[in-house]
């Protein structure tokens, strides 16, 4: 029987892409249809991402709009933008007509503003048009920007039998029935039911007697990250969205949340690596430069700062103290590493709502932690310098300042994200190059100060 | 009506925690019950995470096991371990008896091996016991380790009416009915149905005529990360798990995948920051040191390497060339930053299956990118050094070597994760301190070489 099942181990091979390209080249629509009809729309999107624009548009125009609309949603964002440019407003409106309202609104929002109205005007289904227009008005980072209008809604006064009958109609439009939302006659959300509850219930029972009133919901203006946190925390697969008056407006499903979580994680990861602007390995060199250069420039300025500091200590260039200069890369690296470690833990803790307690207690903990790490590392460095250079004073000066540098770097790495968070700024910007650069400079300055003091020069 | 709805904006305030602590102190079980019964189990878990161990155990012993089992699952892992130590095997078995098989197996797997058997022996429900024992045999990173045995299964020979009747029985045990899995008489998965399909169908129809045979599934030994990718790609909310013979063994639901994705993202983020071992801000100083010190030690060794290189170039300490030493922190920082940027993009691309094409084309692209960034930055540095020191040769030497260092750092950052990935090693270890340290050393070496050549000294 297993041959009847879809092979989910879809492999995007060069042979497959060549095959598709050959069929397009030969305009062999029949074979192309036969080949592509075997695949899931998400797989076809992966194939199209590898084709050139002309070829991709050829496939989009060939296949039915109920498949191509799903393919469009799965395409790489840059490729989707290019493909949409090649389609007429009417063609886009047809694609959009096949999509759920949330996806439809997302596609339209990506279009240049001038085209948005053209496309909306061409949508045939008036209800769909009105719903999409409503969704477009919400901020894309709000619950309203993520929700879909498709849901199954019943009134508390209905019976189970009546409910089942009417659900049959509504459910056809809803891809997945997670929950049935129960509203009163003013359309206010009062609770929910599962299909399972309905099936288990007796047909003459009133909905009002079955409804679970302890229902989670979010406000249409809530931030999507907060919605994601709530859904993950309470293990919800769908959550209803209401306005200030508790009127049911839409619902958000877990698959959209999975995408939000993934995007957030990717963004934070890139931020920590000194990359801004949600780029991918396949983006153009210019796009990648725009994402990377500003942070490198920050590093350059920091390096110039380090140069100025070292030049200020040029007087130390006497005999034995010269060795101090050879350890600046070590000091800078340790300051940077410790700073990134401590800030990453705080940034992640803040994102997961794990960080409680006062700023002072965090700083004291980080100080102890950095001191412990610093002393272990400094001991090792002391032994190395002593053994290698045979100068116990130099070894002492370098090691003691390493401990100080590590403690200060840990404190800065802890304090800066906490401070930014208090000010309502995304603490994630405080990781990576930002912390590394400031710790580099401060670390080197501190190092020379302390070493100079200890050596008495 | 809105006051009937659960307030999802649960706030963990100090007052609330104090209130709970006071009730525990006074052994005021009635008020404690009244207070906690208002909250969702995930919220109670947050409260318990803030209490000391004795207080947390007091609450766990007070509440009913159907609530406390869910609370246990939501507790911070370290706290759960401590609480479980305070419970008898029989008490744990009772908690486990209330949980779905996947969660039950997870709890038991966390116990010391000696206790595992004791707890399993005490589970009363023989079927539950057998299922949990089966799940414990799978690797925790495999589909088998993630799946639950709870699912709704029907035979292809049944009618819709018969199906509905029997589903009522099965569904009571299953928290959420995502899909109804259809098997043949050999228990082989042949397809699926949704509750919606059943409701819309006529009661005398045969399941065999309704079943959707294009069903995604995974093998019980598949890696959880691959399962997560498949479910995210195809927007699945549940996926059946089968063995080599296509026999239906269990199912994985999207909420478990959300947890997997979150853990993965957290792990990669920490790895990039030089932290290993899945620690949190609230872990002990010793645990945090264990996670951070190895990477700092790597940085220290790298710093010593830089020292040795610089000492090797000590001969350059003549008049004008001294300024070269002042720019080593800048060179090291730029090499590190570029390396981290390029490796992060590749690591992320590999994780998202975005990286296609040959290694050579990647390296050529990164070389062009690094060259572009490098030339812009070097131009700026050239002007600074020239203006500041008035020595065009020195300025030229430093800037030219900066370009070379940036290109090499970019190539290493691109090549190393690609190489590790080809070798089947997690490329994520190649980000953060690893790349920074190796680029620091190589960058400084390259810098002095090139600068020495240009200055002809």
UniProtKB/TrEMBL annotation, chains A, B:
Sequence ranges assigned to domain CBS in this UniProt record: 147-209, 210-267
PROSITE patterns per UniProt: CBS (PS51371)
Membrane topology: Multi-pass membrane protein
Entry keyword annotation includes Kinase: no
Subcellular location: Cell membrane; Membrane
Keyword entries, A-Z: CBS domain, Cell membrane, Magnesium, Membrane, Metal-binding, Transmembrane, Transmembrane helix, Transport
Taxonomic superkingdom: Bacteria
Membrane-crossing residue ranges in chain numbering: 293-310, 322-347, 367-388, 395-416, 428-450
Signal peptide: none
Xref: Pfam families: CBS (PF00571), MgtE (PF01769), MgtE_N (PF03448)
Quaternary structure annotation from Swiss-Prot or TrEMBL: Homodimer.
Family per record: Belongs to the SLC41A transporter family.
PANTHER family: MAGNESIUM TRANSPORTER MGTE
Cited function: Acts as a magnesium transporter.
Protein known as: Magnesium transporter MgtE
Organism, as annotated: Algibacter agarivorans
């Amino acid at each position: 029987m297993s041959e009847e099942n879809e092979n989910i181990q879809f492999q995007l091979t060069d042979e497959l892409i060549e095959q598709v390209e050959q069929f397009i080249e030969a305009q062999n629509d029949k074979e192309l249809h036969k080949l592509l009809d075997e695949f899931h729309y998400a797989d076809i999107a992966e194939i199209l991402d590898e084709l050139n624009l002309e070829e991709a548009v050829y496939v989009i125009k060939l296949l039915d709009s109920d498949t191509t609309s799903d393919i469009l949603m799965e395409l790489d964002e840059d490729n989707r933008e290019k493909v949409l440019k090649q389609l007429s407003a009417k063609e886009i409106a047809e694609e959009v007509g096949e999509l759920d309202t949330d996806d439809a609104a997302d596609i339209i929002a990506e279009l240049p503003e001038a085209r948005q109205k053209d496309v909306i005007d061409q949508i045939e289904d008036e209800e769909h048009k009105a719903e999409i227009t409503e969704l477009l008005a919400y901020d894309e980072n709000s619950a309203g920007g993520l929700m879909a209008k498709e849901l199954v809604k019943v009134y508390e006064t209905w019976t189970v039998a009546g409910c089942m009958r009417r659900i049959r109609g509504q459910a056809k439009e809803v891809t997945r029935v997670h929950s049935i939302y129960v509203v009163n006659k003013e359309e206010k959300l009062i609770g929910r039911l599962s299909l399972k509850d309905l099936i288990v219930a007796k047909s003459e029972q009133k909905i009002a007697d079955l409804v679970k009133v302890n229902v989670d919901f979010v406000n249409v203006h809530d931030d999507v990250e907060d919605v994601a946190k709530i859904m993950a925390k309470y293990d919800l697969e769908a959550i209803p969205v209401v306005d200030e008056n508790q009127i049911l407006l839409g619902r958000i499903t877990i698959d959209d949340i999975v995408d939000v979580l993934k995007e957030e994680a990717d963004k934070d990861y890139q931020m920590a690596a000194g990359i801004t602007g949600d780029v991918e390995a396949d983006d153009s060199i210019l796009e990648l430069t725009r994402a990377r250069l500003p942070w490198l420039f920050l590093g350059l300025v920091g390096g110039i700062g380090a140069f100025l500091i070292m030049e200020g200590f040029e007087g130390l260039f006497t005999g034995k103290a010269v060795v101090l200069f050879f350890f600046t890369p070590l000091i800078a690296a340790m300051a940077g590493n410790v700073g990134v470690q401590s800030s990453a833990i705080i940034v992640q803790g803040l994102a997961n709502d794990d960080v409680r307690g006062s700023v002072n207690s965090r700083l004291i903990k980080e100080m102890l932690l950095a001191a412990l790490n610093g002393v272990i590392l400094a001991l090792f460095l002391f032994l190395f310098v002593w053994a290698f250079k045979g100068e116990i004073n130099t070894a002492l000066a370098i090691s003691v300042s390493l401990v100080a540098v590590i403690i200060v770097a840990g404190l800065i790495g802890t304090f800066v994200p906490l401070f930014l968070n208090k000010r309502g700024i995304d603490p994630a910007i405080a990781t990576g190059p930002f912390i590394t650069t400031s710790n580099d400079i401060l670390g080197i300055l501190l190092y020379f100060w302390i070493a100079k003091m200890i050596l008495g020069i």
